[in-house]
Amino acid sequence: MTVINRSACNALWRNFSIGALFFSLHFLFTAPALCADSDPTDTLPMFGQPKINRSEDLKKADDAFIRDSTLRYGNRQAGSNTLTAQGWAAVRAGQDDVAMRRFNQAWLLNPKNYSVFWGYGAVLSAKGKLSEALEYLETARQLVDDPKQRVALLCDLGAVHSAYAARMPADRQLERAQQFVLANNRFSESLENDPKFAQSWREWAFSLYDQERYSEAWLRVKKARELNAEPFPPEFVQKLSAKMPEPN
Asked: What is the per-residue burial (b if ≥16 Cβ within 10 Å, else e) of 208-239?
């Protein structure tokens, strides 16, 4: 089981209010453009910086965008938050390039917005670029200042570390083990902050199956069910049962 086929990277989305959802969808395709012509770096996190230098023309366009957005949204923080919400709406709609453009616009307005880096990680995970995704998710972890969001972010980090480990070939066993250790640490930290966060128990169960720790996986399955987590896919339960019958 990998994070790509589950909702692990949408934790921030799940915390939006219904009002924010409709607001985001309304403005999803009406956010101000950075410049008249689309640039290939628009769909790279932080426009590919610092590896790719920003041209003087693009820097001027960025400055104009910041000025216009500050007037439009009232201040830079409000603009960054709105564009981030639009980015997550695009993630939910499967529009990765639109999402990356919105996250980049939000980043211009507030380079310390943790949810932007979380969004980068979500898009890169959806594209299967798990190693790169982890770099941005770690930055988000360092920046996050909301305790509730931190719990969900740590869950996502655990899920991506686990998916990355599960994809590694047999000749990278040591690195694979290290990634699983990191996954377990992130799940544990998430649940230390909120023992009733059902998604962390659920994602940890998937991870422990991939680690071939079946009895521990069943314990997480039980806990996730007790907390009314999203139901486990029947095929996962069947695979786990084949490895070890469900304890009474």
From this structure: bbbbebbebbbbbbebbeeeebeebeeebeee
